[in-house]
Amino acid sequence: MTVDQQDLDDFAKDADAWFREHVDPDPGFMLPLTFMEVGTDRQFEYLRDWQRRVWEAGYLGAAWPKEYGGGGLDPAFQKAATEAMRRHNGPIMLNAIGLNWTGPLLLDMGSPEQKRKYVKGILSAEDIWCQGFSEPENGSDLGNAQLKAVRDGDAYVLNGSKIWTTQGNYAKYMILLARTDPDAPNKYAGLSFFLSPMRIEGVETTPIRKLTGEYGFTQTFFTDARIPADCLMGEEGQGWLIAMRTLEYERGARGGQAGGYVLTPLDAFSILDLAGRARRDGAPALDDPVMRDKLVEFLIEAQGLNLCQQRVKTPALTQDRPMALPLASKLMWTEFARRLNEYAVTLTGAQGGYYVGDDNAVDNGLWARGYLNAFSATIGGGTSQIQRNIIAEHVLGLPKK
User: Fold this and answer.
1) If you write DSSP's letter for every residue of 221-249 in order, what string do you get?
2) Residue 139 — pLDDT band, cuts 50, 70, 90?
3) CB neighbours of 91 closer than 8 A, spacing ≥ 6?
4) Which residues are designated catalytic?
5) Which of 53, 185, 260, 378 has a 20 to 30 Å separation from 84 between CA atoms?
6) Would residue 109 count as lying in a domain?
7) Which domain holds residue 349?
8) 66/152 same-domain check
9) Phi and psi at residue 145, to the nearest 5°
């Protein structure tokens, strides 16, 4: 698709004006920093309405096909809209798993019927999606998923549980990895992938309270839950293949997402303001040479990560190991965010012990909250340890242990 530069410039100008007008800098309550922190009905309804309005204005799903609710435009238009959203500090998009994983997966591998049924509702936030991969007894061993799906006529009967089901208590649908053949020659061959309804008899969710005091995660229980057989995506036994494609979207190794962002963008350079205000032992924190050197290291690293995002778009700069940066992106950014927030808490000294709602908390506890919540991103989508294994095996060609 050829992009008319004038059309793109006009679109970007309109998007900038729209977000400038519609972003509310103070909705009157604390908004989540990430989609994993949506823990109250008030937050949920506000963000659902926000996503719907952004989509109706044409600034979400701009590059998805028109016949499924998108804008049918070149991805450059969505990029311009997302940049405007970020520039004006717009709230996050609520339907993270739908917009970033399920939607791209459906457009890539789904049947025409599945696309017509599900994609538009993902964009409008009418249909919230969650993910049923992890299980309580299997940790990061996704291939050992044990939730059972047994064919019974025109339905599958589900029994088992999934954990860390983000927004499971709000979701209408779940992308679900289940075991359909316990006697398969290997554990991967016995898995199948479902687009499972959540609001049916036999499905229950239990909220999980996090260290931060917030909710957002749930455990989901399936007890003789019957789902239609046409919820199966692909064929029986193809679940591992489809799950791996899903994880490519989740980890940022494959494009096609709807746009916007589901985690408040981390601007490492904003920490300069905090560093300028912070005081240690009655003196500016940056008078300490160790603190100052550490800040410079973070700023250099932030610039390097930003440049890596540009580098990955230039094949000539990545031809030696073309998948290295896409596969490493999730690991690098999540670990960087964790360390940067930790440094910010350190900058605030003794006041770093105060949390959200405390009168003495710096920036209303933003940095402490960001630090504690940063750990969830280093776990979801594959822990940092798993990510390192993936890079070792698929980029460096090292053998499995």
Assistant:
1) EEEEEEEEGGGEESSTT-HHHHHHHHHHH
2) low
3) 23, 31, 46, 47, 50
4) 250
5) 378
6) no
7) 268-394
8) no
9) -55, 135
